[in-house]
Amino acid sequence: MSRIPATFERLARAGHKALIPFFSVGDPSLPLCVPTMRAMVTGGADIIELGIPFSDPMADGPTIQRSSERALKNGVTLHDVLATVAQFRQTDNVTPVVLMGYANPIERMGREHFAGQCAAAGVDGVLVVDYPPDEARDLGQLLGPQGVDSIFLLSPTSTDARVKEIASLATGYIYYVSLRGVTGASNIDPQDVARQIARIKAVARVPVGVGFGIRDGATARQLAETADAIVVGSRIVEEIEASPADEVPARVGALINRFRQAMDA
Question: Which CATH number fits domain 4-264: 3.40.50.1000, 3.20.20.70, 3.30.360.10, 3.20.20.105?
Answer without folding.
Answer: 3.20.20.70
